[in-house]
Amino acid sequence: MNWEVVIGLETHVELATKTKIFCSCTTAFGGDPNTHVCPVCTGMPGSLPVMNKKVLEYAAKASLALNCDVTQYCKFDRKNYFYPDLPKAYQVSQLYLPIGRNGKVPIQVGSEEKVIRIHELHMEEDAGKLVHDNWIDQTRADYNRCGVPLIEIVTEPDFRSGDEVIAYLEKLRSTLEYLGVSDCKMQEGSLRCDVNLSVRPQGSTELGTRTEMKNLNSFKAISRAIAYEARRQEELIEMDHKRVIQETRRWDDNKDATISMRSKENAQDYRYFPEPDIPPMELTDSYLDSLRASMPEMAPAKRERYQREWGLSEKDAALLTDTRAMAAYFEDTVAAGAAPKQASDWIQGEVLRELKEKSLDIKQVVFAPEALAHLIDLVRQGKLNRNTAVKVFRAVFDDNGDIDAYVKAHGLEQVNDTGLVEQVVSDVLAANPQSVADYKAGKKKASGFLMGQCMKALKGKGDPKVVSQTLNKKLAEL
Amino acid sequence: MSLLDYSALELGRLIAADEVSVREATRTALDAIAAANSDNNAFITVLEEDALREAEQVQAKLRAGELSGPLAGVPAAIKDNICTLGVKTTCASKILGDFKPPYQATVMERLQRAGSVNLGKLNMDEFAMGSTTETSFYGPTKNPWNLGHVPGGSSGGAAAAVANRECWYALGSDTGGSIRQPASYCGVTGMKPTYGTVSRYGLIAYASSLDQIGPLARSAEDCAAVLDLIMGKDPRDGTSLEAPCGHLLENLSADLTGKKIGIPVDCFGDGLDPEVRAAVLSVADVLKERGAEIEEFRLPIMEYVVPTYYIIAAAEASSNLSRFDGVKYGWRAENYEDLTDLYNKTRTEGFGNEVKRRILLGTFVLSTGYYDAYYNKALQVKAVIKNAFDDAFSKYDLILMPVAPTTAPKLGESLSNPLQMYLSDIYTVSVNLAGLPGLSMPCGLDKNGLPIGAQLIGPALGEQKVLDAAYAYQQDTNYHQKTPVGGAKE
Amino acid sequence: MKITTELVDYVSVLSRLKLPEEEKVKMAGELEQIIGYMDILNRLDTSDIEPMSHTFPVKNVLREDVVEDFGGRAALLSNAPAHDDTAFLVPKTVD
């Protein structure tokens, strides 16, 4: 039988605010256990939550960017359950009036375009971290993460493949990163994903019984978990003639399999009700207009513009718009006078290499786009050759050093003195009779060696074009 | 005459004039508490050393001219559900154990800033759930007017301490009548201000949408002075209101000319003790003398207020009290097998019966299948109740009604029938549901010599109107100055 | 409505309370009485009425996103029945 896989996603995204959603504790990642806490986020009796203005702003922006209907009068609700990572024994979340509903996210897989529907987007607080200590056979509860603001984005069951899921998550990540509402770092848990998956015979319109997979902390894990779980369900039905049980399954990266989580001993009945401690929030038309006006140009628009205005290839445009910071670096370099194609080449070549070698994020780069533009300009003017320019780039990259001063101090200006070049070429030819003979005998490779010798004699500062022309001319004359 | 025979404001004036030292006042109160507490059990914690040290500090500030308010140097006592930094705060529950809050409630900061001295923490019904102060893990408080009777609740310790002249004023909390009803049973003046006017930051929540801190004192005038200290917007409480505050005392006026006072006939029918009825109605006569117009009207919501209140209060309580699980603070059961067992044992052994009943009730009304029929329905009826009051206040400046159907019952009579006990809250809970200011003041004694209270209710933020009427009444009567005659058992 | 001991069990599990058998029966009776009384509310037609979760029309009470360090880890941990220098301690939660 041919099976169709049906997937819906619940994605939790940590918002990039400085403080927690309901108290003024820092949201900084890490920190010694229970050092980013206060009476509010540890659920001390008598403490009260006060909503962070930025959380509302970021959640509203995300809702708008994901084409949701924004709930202009929204509220928080309490979700009640006992667990030691939840100090109040309720999570403040939104059930009845989530901030965003009915969103749409267009995605592209290969040449196929598709729209993923967002069921809802709501704000909530994160829970703490539990770490078991085998030595003392006790679990430590660390509340640093309690109250870190999250948005949960719930899709309709619109995905039919793992590739669609990845394309959606890439789109989501890019959108939220561009908005500046989240870092979307999976390794730090700022983007987490639960996958609801069921299978059904091709052509069927009924939904099968679904399982929910948790603990998916990379795109790779998500792809593999989807493939595994779809196959597991198909085989369960087809080979074993069993039914899929609605349950939560944990993805185990080491075993490459999903594992049933022991079903919770107690019934799930969260007894949601409106949070009495937090007054409702009204998002007026003018507030939403101001948010719309403050939204940056998003990646798809930039990609289109880079190709249309600056003639970049689709691939280059995609790479340069991967993050908002990368696009900003590129655009700043162009704005400082560099030709877009040159700026693109330099960023994708030299800048990315430095980032990779030094494990840096583009946001951490101190080397100014203006300096990069200047360097590109020096090459264009013929004052530096490309190889020397790369050397200069590497020398000044870390501290945004003065390019002109460095070039001067190291005597790196390109040699354009044709008399000198002719002299050097003649000397090289005279010193390497064997290579000259090889060249004459048809071994064209020999010219490469001779070119190298010439450049070496010029200490790398020769204009390769001029040197090559001179060398070819002299070889022909021999 | 003992210093304790002065009102809070009178003591404040003596201290300001340096005729009485803060230490002297504090010492006098501590001695009175020591003499009475074994009989009436009004206090859970007495802060002997802390209070005397605080008294010296306040005195120094007074001498340095850093304090000038009318209550500077006047000691107070605090209900034990208000968090006091480093001072045991129990909610009269076993489950909080020796919990010492790592922070100060906003009202405590405000009192401290005004030069108050904290004498100790007052007994109450466990987690403020009860109408008699008999559900306290620390034993019941007894009514100073007759030790065989309850003081009311849940702020029973506060009412008893003020009535018995162990302190000049106290802070209580009122979720469904917990200030007004014990004030009525103990013959003191107590006020629940408009929801949101006093910060709840540091008040251990029972029902968040209804809880409000307020004063119990000897007179409306003293209550006004205390409210001036504690009211005001607090950035740490999202439900606190931006509203003018701090001028109740200076604006206090006994002239009620042109004020319209409504008497809801629905509150004077069946179930109301005839002595209480007569005493409350006689208040109207006094107010009329002072220029008020009195009119009867219908408030056709009274049969719905108790169920609505108990559904909402229990629902919120079931959630608010979930945090007491033996992990972060308070008491933890011994000999548990695993996490679930730890939760079950700690909570089952740590909470008393009334608290457990309300947690189960609240869990029920929020659970799948019952939410709409009970909780959501109650939120709709709450809107109806609020509208009924809005209508009334479009015609009247104030509403006059009883506080409780009877005077203080005997100890041990109430807890056996929970529903009956809930029904006795009929006159107080609607004020919390509608968020309004309500005041209870003494207006007579019954044939057994127990105090009767009358309730004045104002529109939202109408504290001045309420206090003015009570102040006017207390100009012409002396019920508020009466003291318990003996305290001997019947 | 009839409040069975099964229903009491259900809400007890959700509330993490475990009543002894004899208390359970008593509790079921009391709750039945109380809940039965609450059915008075059904006399009132509220079909057109918006549920009122917040009494006053206060809205948008928001704070600025500025970090304040509370600092006192020791003070926060000190009330815990079981804790070490850095964390609250609980029985094993995961397998």
Rg over CA atoms of chain A? 30 Å
C-alpha end-to-end distance of chain B? 28 Å
- Give the mean pLDDT of chain B: 96
Number of helices of chain B: 15
Q: Report on the biggest sheet of chain B.
A: 11 strands, mixed
Strand order of the largest sheet of chain B: 1-3-2-4-6-5-10-11-9-7-8
* Class derived from helix and strand content of chain A: alpha+beta
Number of strands of chain A: 17
Query: What is the H/E order of chain B?
Result: HHEHEHEHEHEEHEHEHHHHEHHEEH
Strand order of the largest sheet of chain A: 3-7-8-11-1-12-13-14-15
Counting DSSP E segments of at least 2 residues, the number of strands of chain B comes to 11
Structure description:
The complex is a heterotrimer of chains A (478), B (490) and C (95). Chain A is an alpha+beta fold. In chain A, 39% of the residues lie in helices and 20% in strands. A 9-stranded mixed β-sheet of chain A has the order 3-7-8-11-1-12-13-14-15. In chain A, strands 6-5-16 form a 3-stranded antiparallel β-sheet, with no helix packed on it. In chain A, helix 14 crosses helix 15. The mean pLDDT of chain A is 92. With 490 residues, chain B is an alpha/beta fold. Chain B has a domain of 297 residues: Amidase signature (AS) domain (Amidase signature (AS) enzymes), CATH 3.90.1300. Chain B is globular and about 65 Å long. The two termini of chain B are 28 Å apart. Chain C is mainly alpha-helical. In chain C, helix 1 crosses helix 2. Chains B and C meet through helix 9, helix 10, helix 11, helix 12 and helix 13 of B and helix 1 and helix 2 of C. Strand 2 of chain A pairs parallel with strand 1 of chain C.
Secondary structure topology:
The complex is a heterotrimer of chains A (478), B (490) and C (95).
Chain A: E1 3-14, E2 51-52, H1 53-65, E3 69-70, E4 73-74, E5 77-80, E6 90-93, E7 100-109, E8 112-125, E9 129-133, E10 138-142, E11 149-155, H2 162-179, E12 191-201, E13 211-216, H3 219-238, E14 248-252, E15 257-260, E16 273-274, E17 281-282, H4 285-293, H5 299-310, H6 314-320, H7 324-335, H8 340-357, H9 369-380, H10 386-396, H11 403-409, H12 418-431, H13 433-440, H14 445-457, H15 464-477
Parallel strand pairs in A: 13-14
Antiparallel strand pairs in A: 1-11, 1-12, 3-7, 4-17, 5-6, 5-16, 7-8, 8-11, 9-10, 12-13, 14-15
Chain B: H1 8-16, H2 22-40, E1 43-46, H3 48-63, E2 75-79, H4 106-113, E3 117-122, H5 156-163, E4 169-173, H6 180-186, E5 189-192, E6 213-217, H7 220-230, E7 260-264, H8 274-289, E8 293-297, H9 302-320, H10 339-350, H11 353-366, H12 371-395, E9 398-402, H13 418-423, H14 429-433, E10 438-445, E11 451-457, H15 463-476
Parallel strand pairs in B: 2-3, 2-4, 7-8, 7-9
Antiparallel strand pairs in B: 1-3, 4-6, 5-6, 5-10, 9-11, 10-11
Helix pairs in contact in B: 2-3, 5-6, 7-15, 9-11, 9-12
Chain C: H1 5-15, H2 21-38, E1 62-63, H3 73-77, E2 88-90
Helix pairs in contact in C: 1-2
